[in-house]
Amino acid sequence: MSIARNVPFETTLQVRDTCLCLHTQRAARALARRFDEALRPVGLTSGQFSLLNALNRPEPPSIGAVAQLLAMDRTTLTAALKPLEREGLVAVAADPGDRRSRLLRLTGRGQEVLASAVPIWRDLHAAIEAGLPASGPDNLRGALAALSQPALR
Question: Where is the HTH marR-type domain (predicted)?
Answer without folding.
Answer: 17-149
